[in-house]
Design goal:
The protein is of the alpha+beta class and 394 residues long. The chain has 2 domains: 211 residues, FAD/NAD(P)-binding domain, CATH 3.50.50; 145 residues, D-Amino Acid Oxidase, Chain A, domain 2. It is 34% helix and 31% strand. A hairpin with a 2-residue loop joins strand 13 and strand 14. The chain starts with 6 loop residues before the first strand and ends in a 5-residue tail after the last helix. Bound molecules: flavin-adenine dinucleotide. Flavin-adenine dinucleotide (FAD) binds next to helix 1, strand 3, helix 5, strand 12 and helix 8. The site of flavin-adenine dinucleotide (FAD) has 37 residues, from helix 1, strand 3, helix 5, strand 12 and helix 8.
């Protein structure tokens, strides 16, 4: 262990991915005097683990938060508006169609590719000289005192902070080091993602379609492309990933049908094992969890990062309300109380939706037709759909 004097910080963020980096921007925007550090295991300025080839659907409220933190002005031109959502069940006649115009809105939400999002965040963070980045680094030891968390990094560097925020994603090792326990449910499913080129325009329509191979979501992207999220059973994932590009495009076309037009090409594919991981506690002494480290949900309803943005907004609000009490008991307790209900609702509803989508019965098909992405983007639809999914409505 190093005997050098530890470097002092107000807040240390473990994990510089989507949630950790956005938190840093939001915190420094609210209080530029904060002394902040990010510890990131990846050496690159933009973590390729978090900012990979996926795209995310953002609800209107999330866009408002990104605007408040000075990020949306740069992101707006890179995002694609969702103006219509179509939910359908292959083999059944029913379909649900929603349009922004019905809600007197410009858009039901936006789709953002996370790679350019990473570049915008990184550029913003580079402007703050008091932000220190430790990378490639991980936390190897945590010692707690009344006023501080003392962190030892893998290279022996020592840091002292009033608040440690853990945003290391779903498999966070520091979360266990800090004493949190996690509940996990493995779904035995994978999400296969890729961008698809189209023979025609997409008219800003997002699709969610249940097929016999698994649910397929298509999110509209700029330049006449769709972002595909294809949920497949564990047993099928290797076969699907090993298809050559032409065979993969053909497979998706056959599985999805022609509602979204003709797919002409596919970009780089990636796949993710899917599970639900939720921490029992949101905070412990001078430590808070955030983003996937707190709630790692199935991407079926596109909720994960939207939920993380609400965590960030609340943490920033609590820190701004009590700047003298950074990491104190009252501040952390208020963060926990404010976030608990939203996290419970979203994790329970998303888990229920996964089970509905994994079920082939006709009754479940009806529930599916209520819409998933629709639930994320239209608040009015959220409660009835969630209640139906949880069996609280018939
Ligand atoms: C296929 C797919 C589609 C999705 N679609 C949507 C969507 O449409 N809408 C939506 O809202 N959400 C969506 N999500 C969820 C969204 O991607 C996550 O909510 C988001 O990535 C969470 O960010 P995070 O920073 O918490 O975690 P991560 O993105 O996992 O980032 C964690 C960071 O911590 C770093 N790290 C890990 N361990 C350590 C360590 N020990 N020390 C230091 N650093 C460490 C990693 O390198 C990484 O940079 C989707 C997810 C998937 C998989």
């Amino acid at each position: 262990m190093s005997t050098a004097t530890p470097q002092q910080f107000d807040i240390v963020i473990a994990g510089g991915g989507m949630a950790g980096s956005t938190l840093a921007v939001a915190l420094l925007q609210a209080n530029p005097a904060l002394k902040l550090a990010i510890i990131e295991q990846q050496a690159e300025q933009i973590s390729s683990t978090s900012f990979d080839s996926r795209s995310i659907a953002l609800a209107a409220a999330s866009v408002e938060l990104l605007a408040k933190w000075g990020l949306w002005a740069e992101l707006a031109g890179k995002a694609c508006a969702i103006k219509h959502i179509q939910v359908s069940d292959r083999g059944h006649f029913g379909k649900t169609q929603l349009s922004a115009a019905e809600y007197q809105q410009q858009a039901l939400g936006y789709v953002l590719e996370v790679e350019p999002f990473g570049a915008v965040l990184s550029g913003k963070l580079a402007q703050y000289k008091q932000l220190q980045r430790f990378a490639p680094n991980t936390i190897s030891g945590i010692t707690t005192t009344q006023q501080h968390q003392h962190l030892t990094l893998n290279d022996g560097t020592t840091l002292q902070t009033r608040l440690l925020v853990i945003a290391e994603g779903g498999l966070s090792p520091s979360r266990a080091l800090a004493g949190f326990t996690v509940q996990e449910r493995r779904y035995q499913q994978y999400a296969v993602i890729a961008n698809l080129a189209l023979a025609q325009g997409h008219q800003h329509t997002a699709f969610e379609r249940f097929t016999e191979h698994g649910p397929i979501a298509l999110l509209p992207l700029n330049a006449q492309r769709y972002s595909l999220v294809y949920t497949v059973e564990e047993a099928a994932v290797n076969r699907i990933m090993q298809l050559d590009d032409a065979a993969f495009v053909e497979h998706i076309q056959q599985a999805f049908g022609y509602r979204a037009g003709i797919f002409t090409a596919v970009g780089r594919r990636a796949c993710y094992p899917l599970s639900l991981r939720v921490s029992g506690d949101i905070v412990r002494h001078r430590t808070a969890l955030l983003g996937n480290s707190l709630h790692n949900v199935h991407p079926i309803a596109g909720q994960g990062f939207n939920l993380a943005l609400r965590d960030i907004a609340e943490l920033v609000r609590q820190l701004s309300a009590a700047p003298e009490d950074i990491g104190g008991y009252a501040m952390l307790r208020a963060y926990q109380q404010a976030r608990q209900q939203d996290i419970n609702t979203v994790t329970t509803a998303t888990d229920a939706l996964v089970r509905i989508f994994s079920n082939r019965s006709r009754l479940m098909a009806l529930a599916r037709n209520g819409g998933l992405l629709a639930m994320t983007l239209c608040d009015e639809l959220k409660r009835p759909l969630a209640e139906q999914a949880m069996g609280l409505r018939s």
